[in-house]
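Bumping my old thread because nobody answered last time. Still need a sequence for this structure:
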């Protein structure tokens, strides 16, 4: 599997992956790195080409949440944590995406609110929701396979040496690029080094 990192000269410079120091997620770059890899992987397996792709589009996330609710009634936070666990901590959808999706599923009649003692809204699947999953069974299976692949990717690349090396790189970038006197040539030189390293890793 090749991820298509490209090296460019000192003119216009585009990167195959985001290399900014304050990445999102646990451990700085961690989750952002794995989401990016998953996006490349999805494009290589029938995903939409051309530019950055989210881990799931709206219809895909609806199916993932619906399937998890079919397994057992859940509320929004449960769903976020369950997806995070199934990817080994590599990916978790934001509440700002999950809760509107739950509202849409409820409006579509695929889930319904279940009375609970707590204040959190818990949802259960409806007969229509079960039928919808049955109609989209192959797509649901592929989506959960994507989650599993992301977990395996995280497991393979999250060893101590990789974490140490990425931590060192993050620290060096933060120190060097925030120093006074950093000009455009220096930025291009740093980017070229990162591109070269990415190409060497890709060829391993």
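Sorry it took so long. Here it is:
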């Amino acid at each position: 599997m090749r991820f298509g990192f490209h090296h460019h000269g000192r003119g216009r410079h585009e990167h195959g992956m985001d290399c900014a120091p304050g990445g999102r997620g646990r451990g700085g770059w961690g989750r952002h790195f794995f989401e990016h890899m998953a996006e490349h992987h999805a494009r290589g397996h029938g995903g939409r080409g051309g530019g950055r792709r989210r881990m799931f589009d709206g219809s895909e996330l609806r199916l993932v949440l619906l399937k998890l609710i079919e397994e057992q009634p859940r509320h929004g936070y449960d769903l976020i944590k369950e997806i995070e666990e199934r990817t080994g901590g590599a990916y978790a959808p934001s509440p700002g995406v999950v809760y509107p999706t739950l509202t849409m599923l409820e409006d579509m009649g695929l889930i319904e609110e279940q009375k609970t003692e707590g204040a959190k809204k818990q949802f259960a699947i409806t007969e229509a929701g079960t039928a919808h999953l049955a109609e989209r069974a192959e797509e649901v299976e592929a989506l959960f396979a994507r989650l599993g692949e992301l977990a395996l990717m995280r497991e393979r690349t999250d060893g101590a040496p990789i974490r140490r090396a990425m931590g060192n790189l993050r620290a060096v970038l933060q120190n060097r690029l925030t120093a006074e006197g950093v000009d455009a040539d220096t930025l291009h030189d740093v980017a070229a080094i990162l591109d070269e390293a990415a190409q060497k890793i890709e060829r391993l």
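The chain has a mean pLDDT of 77. Let me know if any region looks off to you.
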